[in-house]
Amino acid sequence: MTAHIPDGLLTPLPPQSRTGRSPTPDSPALPEPSSAERSAIRRSLTWQQRAALRVLARTPSRIRQRATGTLYVDTQTSAHIAIATWHALERKGLAHRDLAAHPASAIGQRLALTPLGVSVLNDISGLTFPPSRAQLWPPDPPSHFTCAPTRRR
């Protein structure tokens, strides 16, 4: 038996974030944000959002669905990211997910930072994370891993 997902829980977000930048890396190349833009974004982040950016840059993470129908972020580590924190990063255009996959599928919805998220993280941490951190991992899984589970008879 598959769990029911309440309406509105998985609706795609608008293509533009608050900063006016497209949150997906598949969009045309955008100019590097100015230091003033990065500073404004950095000041708006909570400590939980900063920690989540670091975790997402280092580990392949996913949104999964429990049997009860609730969603959670699976980081495959002891680090915990609240689903509300994930939604905040997505709204700010700092992270994105694989909307083609279903969260109850075998691998869930893959998560990654956007190029803007990588830029802000580099600014926050003082480290240099490569642009490849904006790509979903693993790349292009087969459809039987990403489709919604079906009811067995």
Automatic annotation (TrEMBL):
Name of the protein described by the UniProt record: MarR family transcriptional regulator
UniProt region (Disordered), positions on chain: 1-39, 133-153
Source lineage: Bacteria, Bacillati, Actinomycetota, Actinomycetes, Kitasatosporales
